[in-house]
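Why this split exists: single-chain examples teach little about how molecules sit against one another. For that reason, every record in the complexes split bundles all components of an assembly together and asks for one structure covering all of them. Below is a record exactly as it appears in the raw files.
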Amino acid sequence: MSELLDKSLKELIEGVKKKEFSSREILDESYAKIEKYNDIYSPFITVVEKGETSDIPFSMKDVYVTRGIKTTAGSSVLGNYIGQYDATVYKKLKQAGYVLVGKNSQDAWGHGGSSENTDIKIPKNPWDKSRVTGGSSGGSAAAVAMRIVPFAIGEDTGGSIRNPAAWCGVTGLKVSYGRVSRYGAIAYASSFDTVGPIAKSAEDCAYILEIIAGRDKYDATSSPHPALKYTDFLDRKNNFTIGVPKEFFGEGLDPEIGYAIKKAVKEFEKLGYKIEEVSFPDFDFVLALYYIIAPSETSSNLGRYDGVRYGASRDKFTEETKRRIMIGTYSLSSGYYDAYYRQAQKARTHLINIYKSIFEKCDVFVSPITPTMPPKFGELIDDPVKNYLADIYTVIQNPAGVPSLALPCGFSKAGLPIGMQIVGPMFSEERLLNVGYRYQQMTNWHLRKPKL
Amino acid sequence: MDINHVGSLANLKIDPKKQKSFSEQFDKILNFVSKISQLKISELKETSQVTDLNNILRNDDIDPTRVLTQEEALSNAKQTHNGYFVVDSILNRE
C-alpha cells in the first residue's frame, strides 16, 4: 500500500501545493485503510461516505456534533442521534479545507481512560490487539497511529487526549481551558473539558491549533486571550528551564516509563534547556478532587438525556456512567455538598496556588502521562478505583486549566509506546509546541508506526 | 450511600440485582475521594472556573441562520404529535 499518510500534515499540504500528489490520492488511501482495518481495530464508530471532494482527510472523536451525521458520544443513549448543527471545531476545519472521514470510538461521554466504557465499539491498540488504546479519545489516537488520518480531534477532561496518545505512540495537545471553542462538544465536565488535536508530531499539532484556536461567540467560556500563529514559534531557540517534579517518579510508576522520561530529560539538556528539580508533594489529592468535581458536573450535564427531545432512555447508560452520575449526585446533595463538592472546589484553589509556585521555578515541567504500560482488556474496567488510579498524572492539569503536550519518548522492552507530557502555565501552548518540536528534531520515537 | 434516594435524585433506576455490588463499589469510591477532607484548606475560596471571565453577555437578537426549523428540532424525538414533543404525563387526573 502506498504510504502518503506516513507524511506529516505539513508535508501533505506542501506536496499537494507542488502537485507531487493530489489530495484525492490521500483521501483514497485513507478510505482504503479504513476498509482494511476498521473491522479489526474499530477506531471508527461511523465512517462518512466518500464524496466527490478532494481534501485532506481527518477524523473526530464522536463527542462532536456533526450536522446530518450520527453522533453518539460513545453511548447507545445517543445511538441513533443525527446531529442537528455543527460543532465550531468541525466548522473551522471544514472551512480550512479538510474533509471528515469518520467519527472515532471512545469511552461513553468521556467517562474512562481505556475506551472500554462503551456499548458501541471498543477500539484495539494498534501496537497490540490484546491491549486497550487508552481513552477516552482511544479511537482518535488509534486512527492517527495507524496512519489512517494525518490528524484527529480528541477531547481531554482528565487526560483523554494524552492517555491514548501515550498508549498509541502519537502526539496530542491538551489546550488551556477556553483556548478552543467547546460549542458542539458534548459536555462531560464543563469546567474541565478541552478540545484538541492528536497528530504525529508537535509541528502538525501547531498547524491544527492555528485553525481551531480562538474566541467563539457561541462559547461563553472561550478566551479572549489572543490565539497565535503557533507554527512561527516552533524552531525558536529559547533558554527555558524545565522542571522535574521529584514526587512524580516514585513508587507506583513503571520503571520503564521513568527511565524513558529521564532519558528525554537528558535530550532536553543537550538542547540547552536548564533542568530544575521541583516539588509537588501529596499530588494524589488531585485524583480525589477530580473524582468529586467531574462526576458532579457530569451528573448535571447528563440530566438533559431524558429521552424526550433526543436519545434513548436513561437505563441505557453503562454501569460506569451510572456510577459517575450517582457519585456526582451524592456529592452535590444536601448534607454532603460541603464535605465533598465545596471542599473539592477549595482544593482546586490549592492546586492553582501550587502551580503558581512551581512556575516561579521553571517555564514548563515534564511528567509521566500514565503510571503503567497499556493494560490488557478487562484489567482496568472491572475495578472502578483501579481504573481511576490510572489517571493520576493527567487529572492534575484540567482543574487548573493548564495546557499539556503529550509526546512519544520511548518504547518498552515489549515494544509498546511510552509517552511523557510537557506542562505549562495557562496560554503557553507556543512554549510547549516549541519544546516538543525541538525534542522531535532530535529523536525518532514519533516516527515509529505499528505493524498492522 | 442511600442508593434509592440518590438514584431518585439522579433519575436513575439501579437494577435491584446489582444494588449490592453498586453499593460496595460506591463505598470504595467514596472512601477513595474522602481523602479530600484531609487537606487543611478551610480558609481558601472555592474555584468554580478558571477563565477569569465574568458576565459574558450578548444582545437578545435572533440570528436566523442558527435557528432550527420545527422539523429539524423534532428530528430525533422518539415520539412527536402534530409538531410537538410527547412527554410523560406529569399531572394525575382523579
